[in-house]
Design brief:
The complex is a heterodimer of chains A (392) and B (191).
Chain A (H helix, E strand, L loop, with lengths): L14 H10 L2 E5 L11 E7 L2 E8 L7 H7 L6 H5 L6 H16 L5 H29 L5 H20 L8 E2 L2 E2 L7 H24 L2 H7 L7 H6 L5 H4 L7 H4 L25 H25 L21 E8 L2 E9 L5 E7 L1 H7 L1 H5 L4 H11 L3 H5 L1
Antiparallel strand pairs in A: 1-2, 2-3, 4-5, 6-7, 7-8
Helix pairs in contact in A: 4-5, 5-6, 5-12, 5-15, 6-7, 7-12, 12-15
Chain B lengths: L2 H12 L15 E3 L4 H10 L7 E10 L4 E10 L4 E10 L4 E3 L8 H12 L2 E3 L27 E2 L2 E2 L5 H29 L1
Parallel strand pairs in B: 1-4, 5-6
Antiparallel strand pairs in B: 2-3, 3-4, 7-8
Classes of the chains: A alpha+beta (392), B alpha/beta (191).
Chain lengths: 392, 191
């Protein structure tokens, strides 16, 4: 068990804090909440001795909007737009998790065509989310050029998703029982065209940054996480896979129509440094984009043609009080889980959203000990935390 | 292992302290006593057949009607690829349970979150303080009977309904129109 916290936080006027820091000769540094490289509004209280950190204590909650409480007040359908705001960079997955949880409560099946629509939208969203992640990570460690490259590609996806559902960020595309809109005409060709174009860009991106000598030297051996530690702290998604442990919800607990696709789960191999280091996490995301392209190709080829986008859903969804459902999906930031308990009326009694970023933040305190301050930025970026997803 | 097998395995170890699985209209779960939770969790992690190496989720549900707060543990075993749900019912007036941070590290933040939003005391937690809300916030928002403070450090927590402004505007327009209508016939009379 770790020792009780030595540096009380938030209350900087507390004389006791200042006194203790004076005695130990350490410096207390506030990093954030408005800091360009903390990926949102997060505060880190860094206790340092020169350039070396003794520990960095994450202070979250600046973006807490009580989405779980809102979920108790809205109807099941009415909560869908709010789930977008859980993770605005990968909103489609938050939609999917909620839709799947309520579908499980209702015990319903959704049409296969709708599942394909969902998967195309989700995999496009996964690519766009990973592009933000790798782009900003490169920028955080000092390579500014790859960021516009990544964002340029993301713009194509934003355009595609805007054509699909009218929104570029908070999609609100999925519905309980299916999806809101059918694919527009000629959409398959456009996605196909994008995938063809994007796979070449990925190779270019690898040449530009992933295997760049300076980039490798900066990130290799940085803050390695062992598989056991990752599981103990409940790290999920690319962060877990980078440790060499190949667990992907799409493969291990198949949902939707994922069993119909061939794809690999990239795992960290310690190619340039230690297994599970920051570079591995970066590389995993780049490879996952390639796998998403593979899934997209297969989804477009195998798509059924019945164009049935919604199952029959009662207009007023009423579920016996106390019924529970749990859904797990592989979001861009890993295993996203919804725990829903049905209430007496038309809304849920309790909604609990377990997100990947939340548990990833918990590990920073343990990893930061002994790191350089500059490496903290790389560590946060490599864990791909998104502030609204932590705070909800 | 299936839920039933896991339940039997736990029952073989703990005897009568392990009850039956919850009824079938829900996802299966197992209700245990609050005093046993640390022991059961440690066994579930260390046992060779169960190996629950990960605490996936920890949530709490408020039931004012039953006067209970339920703490729900979602366990997951990466090694054996099975999951299990443990539940503990606590008294609503004084919810207190032993912390399981010594078993799984991920419990640290998950317990802090439930302490903050639901007000469950996790005894033995190394650093139990609010995580989402400010340290001096009053109340626990996910309680069903939570009433928000009107203000926090002179910042109001509520806001006027912006639609009311439009209603007032409509009323003003109507009043002006009425006044104009009332004024118009007078002119006719005068002329």
């Amino acid at each position: 068990m770790t020792k009780p916290l030595e540096v009380p936080t938030m209350d900087m006027e507390n004389k006791e804090v200042l006194r203790r820091i004076e005695i130990t000769g350490d410096m207390l540094l506030n990093m954030g909440p408005q800091h360009p490289s903390t990926h949102g509004v997060i505060n880190f209280l860094v206790q340092t001795d020169g350039e070396v950190m003794k520990r960095a204590i994450p202070e979250v909650g600046y973006l807490h909007r009580s989405i779980e409480k809102i979920g108790e007040r809205c109807t099941y359908n009415g909560f869908m737009p709010y789930t977008d705001r859980v993770d605005y960079i990968a909103a489609m997955f938050a939609n999917q998790g909620w839709a799947m949880a309520v579908e499980r409560l209702l015990g319903m099946q959704i049409p296969k065509y709708a599942e394909y629509c969902r998967i195309i939208a989700c995999e496009l969203n996964r690519i766009s989310s990973h592009l933000i992640s790798v782009g900003t990570m490169a920028m955080d460690v000092g390579a500014v050029t790859p960021f516009p490259y990544a964002l340029r590609e993301r713009e194509f996806i934003n355009d595609l998703l805007e054509e699909l559902c009218g929104a570029r960020l908070t999609y609100n595309y999925l519905r309980i029982g299916g999806v809101a809109f059918d694919l527009p005409s000629g959409y398959e060709d456009k996605v196909q065209g994008f995938v063809d174009h994007f796979e070449k860009i990925l190779d270019e991106f690898n040449r530009l940054i992933t295997y760049n000598e300076i980039f490798i030297k900066r990130l290799a051996h940085l803050a390695p996480i062992s598989a056991q530690m990752a599981i103990d702290y409940c790290l999920v998604g690319p962060n877990l896979r980078a440790t060499g442990y190949g667990f992907d919800v799409r493969k291990a607990l198949p949902y939707s129509v994922y069993p119909e696709f061939q794809f690999d789960v990239p795992v960290g191999r310690g190619e340039v440094g230690t297994k599970g280091d920051a570079w591995d996490r970066f590389w995993c995301r780049v490879e996952e984009m390639r796998q998403s392209c593979r899934i997209l190709r297969q989804a477009l080829a195998q798509m059924p043609q019945d164009r049935e986008i919604m199952a029959k859903v009662p207009r007023k969804i009423k579920i016996p009080e106390g019924t529970e459902a749990y859904s797990r999906i592989e979001s861009a930031r890993g295993d996203m889980q919804y725990y829903v308990v049905a209430g007496a009326g038309e809304n849920a009694h309790r909604v609990k959203i377990r997100t990947g970023s939340f548990t990833a933040m918990g590990i920073i305190d343990a990893l930061s000990r002994g790191l350089m301050i500059a490496d903290l930025v790389a560590l946060i970026a490599s864990l791909d935390v998104v502030a609204p997803e932590i705070d909800r | 292992m299936t839920f039933e097998e896991i339940q039997q395995r736990l029952a073989a170890k703990f005897g009568e302290r392990i009850g039956a699985l919850a009824p079938a209209n829900k996802d299966a779960s197992l209700l245990v006593q609050a005093a046993d939770i640390l022991e059961i969790c440690r066994f579930a992690k260390d046992d060779e057949a169960l190996v629950f190496d990960c605490l996936m989720n920890l949530s709490t549900v408020d039931w004012p009607k039953k006067n209970q707060i339920e703490v729900v543990y979602h366990l997951w075993s990466y090694r054996r690829r099975h999951g299990f749900v443990l539940k503990v019912a606590l008294d609503r007036a004084k919810p207190e349970i032993a912390s399981i941070t010594s078993v799984w590290k991920s419990a640290d933040w998950l317990e802090r979150e439930q302490f903050d939003l639901m007000g469950v005391q996790f005894t033995g937690h190394p650093d139990l303080r609010r995580i989402m809300l400010p340290d001096d916030w009053v109340g626990h928002p996910l309680r069903k009977d939570y009433a928000e403070q009107p203000q926090w450090h002179n910042i109001t927590t509520t806001r006027d309904n912006s639609l009311e402004g439009y209603v007032r505007l409509d009323e003003l327009k109507k009043k002006a129109a009425d006044a104009a209508a009332a004024a118009a016939p007078k002119k006719e009379v005068l002329s």
